[in-house]
Write a structure and sequence with these properties.
Uridine Diphospho-n-acetylenolpyruvylglucosamine Reductase, domain 3; 5-stranded antiparallel sheet
Length: 292
């Protein structure tokens, strides 16, 4: 963290570049890319399976973290394109596809060791799952695109890997699908076909497979998603794909930035003024322009 702090410094515009897999997310038209780019610390410092936590440099790839955690029978609710980093996934703040089982990405970050716009290090959050000290700065950081602070090292909440899992595909009404299952990991609907991911104990998964088979569903090779879609590349059917239970619609083609109320924008500007009054950190990026 000392080297990371020195790289950030206390003057000049700066940003952290990880895998660059979603580099244009939240970029405004005036963003020129001439900001000084630095790298975040890489590596897994410790994994504590009993406490279900992992300490990792934010420059570590999501894939490397997943591989290391799987050796301990655990995982973390982060995903992203090939090459995506832990810090990048947190700063973009996109929920995992298996959100129904893994939960929200905002709940993953327990502690973040950061460098602020003044070039000083500070820590947000705490190292335990049951942490109630101070303001919940970690939730502010997730999805901020690095506009409040630059994150170097994080402590993340992990979860046990499911004992069993299956993808199922069918055309039954989505209401029947949701009623038949207990907290499915994923339910996707493309207007005709539902693609369902169920996870849990072997016995529970077997029971839910039987319920879906009674509705006409069949097993699918993992992972089979609508129209060959993998979230990060590939085509989408006309009208898009709806992720049931999450309020998310994945739409084909360009999507305009969401409209933000005056009150929300005012609050966001006040927060950014407090953390970075001179806009040193990731200038030209705006979390409220995010469409990806």
């Amino acid at each position: 963290m000392a080297a990371f702090r020195d790289a950030v410094g206390d003057a000049g515009t700066v940003c952290v570049r990880g895998g660059g897999t979603r580099w244009l997310v939240g970029a405004v038209p005036s963003h020129t890319g001439d900001v000084r780019q630095i790298s975040a610390p890489v590596g897994i410092e410790s994994i504590d399976p009993p406490e279900m936590t992992v300490v990792v440099g934010s420059g570590t790839t999501v894939a490397d973290l997943a591989s290391a955690l799987s050796e301990h029978g655990q995982e973390v609710a982060l995903d992203g394109p090939v090459g995506a980093t832990v810090g990048g996934a947190l700063m973009v703040g996109r929920n995992p596809l298996r959100r129904g089982r893994l939960g929200e990405i905002a709940d993953v970050l327990l502690q973040a060791d950061c460098v602020g716009a003044d070039g000083q290090t500070f820590t947000a959050g705490g190292p335990t799952v049951k942490n109630v000290t101070g303001f919940d700065l970690c939730r502010l950081l997730v999805g901020s695109l690095g506009t409040l602070a630059l994150v170097g090292r994080v402590i993340l909440r992990t979860r046990p890997l499911p004992e069993a899992g299956a993808w199922m595909v069918g055309e039954a009404p989505t209401g029947l699908v949701m009623d038949a299952l207990y907290r499915p990991a994923t339910v996707l609907w493309d207007g005709v076909r539902s693609t369902v991911r169920i996870e849990g104990s072997c016995a529970d998964v077997a029971d839910e497979i039987r319920c879906l088979e009674a509705l006409g569903f069949t097993a699918a090779d993992e992972p089979v998603l609508p129209a060959g879609w993998d979230r990060w590349s590939g085509t989408l059917p006309e009208g898009g794909v709806r992720a049931l239970g999450s309020g998310v619609v994945h739409h084909p083609g360009p999507v305009s930035a969401p409209e933000v109320s005056v009150g929300v924008r005012s609050l966001a500007d006040r927060l950014r003024d407090a953390f970075d009054p001179f806009r040193r950190l990731n200038p030209g990026r705006d979390p409220y322009r995010m469409t990806a």
